[in-house]
């Protein structure tokens, strides 16, 4: 199966791999991109770009003691000389496309990602800056891959033939939006969700943020609005060359930072117009799949959503790395006294929720012909 897919989308031997650059390569998400792309069958990291203070150093020197991944820094990147991310033409000339994880203000990110796109370099972004740009697709490939079709309208606006921007959504919504998508036929119309979010979502470890030990913080700036609005954009439709968000289900949320390194957990309550049984809901989760599974993409989980029967699951320590961090775990689904059903969801925030989700977007874009060799 894998061999057939690789042939169909034009990926074969090493020399045919697409050349990839990582913008913001020294930060936590940039490091996660590097870890996930080490040995990737379709993509090869050839360029690393960061701020002017890192430029000119080898990647190993630039990161120094700030390597935050559990696995060692891949040998293949250690001696790559970091380029200045602001030297757009120079960086773009070395790659077929880039992943963006730059740490700048929202306006600066918007501007620099468009600059890269205008050099005819596709940008697959982990950042939030372009999530509400009407002709930029914000995609979870199992949920709304058809939104990539808006790229053709975006190219007209940018005046490009192959350059564009695509983004992935907020990390926390991955713990509950896939379940709500799987239950679409039962028409969920009202959702209350509380997310319990890991510190790596802020780019931190416990070493960087000791005050988070034995502590929770009941506020994460901007997160509640993202949790309420971004799923509606995923479920929207392309009209007149832009994505119009859906209007239901209405979502209200609270977001809490908790003393966990990796893994965002959600406690959600749902009202349905059509009243499903628990068995129907569980079966819908197990049956749910999308384009990544159908195409057997390299980073795709075989089983996107797992349902756990045990009362004390999902747990971060047991389940955060399900399907190498690319799957979603759902448990404790039961009838509620106020809403119809409630459940607990869990997803890996820096794998599925960040770099891994962006890599899967890039694989989908490659498979659909949007990203090709320059």
TrEMBL record:
It holds the Pfam family Semialdhyde_dhC. PANTHER family: ASPARTATE-SEMIALDEHYDE DEHYDROGENASE. InterPro entries: ASADH-related (IPR051823), Asp_semi-ald_DH_pep-lack (IPR005676), NAD(P)-bd_dom_sf (IPR036291), Semialdehyde_DH_NAD-bd (IPR000534), Semialdhyde_DH_dimer_dom (IPR012280). It comes from the Bacteria. Residues 19-151 form the Semialdehyde dehydrogenase NAD-binding domain. GO terms for biological process: methionine biosynthetic process; threonine biosynthetic process. This is Semialdehyde dehydrogenase NAD-binding domain-containing protein. The active site is at residues 171, 264. Belongs to the aspartate-semialdehyde dehydrogenase family. One of its GO terms (molecular function) is NADP binding. The keyword Transcription regulation does not apply. Keywords: NADP, Oxidoreductase. The keyword Oxidoreductase applies. Signal peptide: none annotated.
């Amino acid at each position: 199966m894998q061999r057939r897919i690789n042939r169909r989308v034009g990926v074969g031997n090493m020399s045919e791999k697409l050349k990839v650059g990582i913008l913001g390569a020294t930060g936590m998400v940039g490091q996660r991109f590097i870890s996930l792309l080490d040995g990737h069958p379709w993509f090869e990291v050839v360029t690393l770009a960061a701020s002017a203070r890192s430029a000119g150093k080898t990647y190993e020197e630039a990161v120094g003691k700030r390597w935050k991944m559990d696995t060692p820094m891949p040998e293949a990147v250690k001696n790559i000389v970091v380029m200045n991310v602001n030297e757009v033409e120079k960086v773009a000339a070395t790659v077929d496309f880039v992943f963006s994880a730059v740490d700048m203000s929202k306006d600066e990110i918007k501007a620099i990602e468009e600059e890269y796109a205008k050099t005819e370099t596709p940008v697959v972004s982990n950042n939030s800056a372009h999530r509400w740009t009407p002709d930029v697709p914000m995609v979870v490939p199992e949920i709304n891959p058809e939104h990539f079709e808006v790229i053709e309208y975006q190219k007209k606006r940018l005046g490009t033939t192959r350059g564009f921007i695509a983004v992935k959504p907020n990390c926390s919504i991955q713990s509950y939006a896939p379940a709500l998508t799987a239950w679409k036929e039962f028409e969920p119309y009202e959702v209350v969700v509380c997310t319990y979010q890991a510190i790596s979502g802020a780019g931190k470890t416990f070493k960087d943020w000791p005050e988070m030990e034995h502590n929770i913080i009941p506020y994460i700036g901007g997160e509640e609005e993202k949790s309420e609005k971004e799923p509606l954009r995923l479920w929207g439709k392309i009209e007149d060359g832009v994505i119009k968000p859906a209007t239901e289900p209405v979502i209200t949320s609270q977001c809490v930072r908790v003393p966990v390194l990796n893994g965002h957990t959600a406690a959600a309550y749902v009202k349905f117009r059509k009243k499903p049984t628990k068995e129907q809901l569980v079966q819908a989760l197990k049956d749910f799949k999308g384009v990544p599974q159908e195409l057997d993409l390299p980073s795709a989980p075989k089983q996107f959503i797992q349902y756990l029967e045990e009362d004390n699951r999902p747990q971060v320590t047991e389940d955060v790395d399900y399907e190498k961090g690319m799957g979603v775990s759902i448990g404790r689904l039961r009838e509620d006294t106020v809403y119809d059903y409630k459940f607990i969801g869990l997803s890996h925030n820096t794998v599925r929720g960040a770099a891994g989700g962006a890599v899967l977007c890039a694989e989908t874009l490659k498979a659909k012909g949007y990203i090709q060799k320059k």
